Amino acid sequence: MSNTASNRTEAPVLAVTSGEPAGVGPELCAWLASREWPARLVVIGDAGLIASRLACTGVAASVQPYHPAARPQSGILEVLHRPLAVPAQAGRLDVANAPYVLDVLDCAIDGCVSGHFSGMVTAPVHKGVICEAGVPFSGHTEYLAERTGSARVVMMLVGGGLRVALATTHLPLAAVPAALTATVLEETLRIVHHDLQRRFGLALPRILVAGLNPHAGEGGHMGREEIEVIEPVLERLRGEGMQLIGPLPADTLFVPHTLARGDAVLAMYHDQGLPVLKHASFGGGVNVTLGLPIVRTSVDHGTALDLAGSGRADPGSLHAAVELAAQMVAQRGAPA
Description:
Its cofactor is Zn(2+); Mg(2+); Co(2+). It is an enzyme of class 1 (oxidoreductase). The protein is α/β, with parallel strands linked by helices. It has 13 helices and 12 strands. It has 2 domains: 192 residues, Isopropylmalate Dehydrogenase (3-Layer(aba) Sandwich), CATH 3.40.718; 141 residues, 3-Layer(aba) Sandwich (Isopropylmalate Dehydrogenase). Strands 3-4-2-1-5-12-11-6-7-10-8-9 form a 12-stranded mixed β-sheet, with helices on both faces.
């Protein structure tokens, strides 16, 4: 047996969910067989589907059932089989397979909670088709929070040398000010601070906090959320020793000399922080869920139905998500 095989046997085991079967997820997972990883990867999904998408990638590998006691080998994609409800066609959504998508997710979550898997990496799902099946589903993040009993979770994207967390996520812009309460902001900052320590190994993380309004409110002339909500929370948490810088005007927060002062950014809403990060890293960014009892990373893109089955989908974001998950798992096991 080669040293590589031995090292992979001893490596942490990461579950990789294959996502929406009509999208690019299954073939992105197939691309994982094209190289070695610092973890043992177990793709969860329909084995026949994964094998068919592997064929379209041109990767010289084969699919084999996952057996915990087996020794992983190069060129073998280990698949924990979960059967499709109905055959899947690339690029064509089928509501009948929505329960399959959730079953794949549940299998990974249960394996992480039980300790069988060290962490999970998720390929994209299609929210709309799951909702059409009668299951209210707003996204992986919320689903994971509910399934793990996590009171609050935080979305953070990593890539292009940036870490950007969000105080609010998928809300209409008009709903953001009311949602940005002192409680929400304080709990979010505590989670970001805690997980930067626990998952990223930063003993005293520095967090750059954006204001909500233009020019961070201009002293109250362009909005009072900074004065009435954000600044009091920051001052209180600084009193506990947190390194919080802000509130900063968002239009100048992402310049190099300001970013150099921090380890992560907390943006107040989705389109305040993520356009900058995705400009810097699209195709290689990673979505991380903070505040969970398990490690979870994901791609930074959607199902790309138009590319499914073509062999042309870019696996860069999934590769980055696997690498980051492996690093986070290793950090979790490192001495404090």
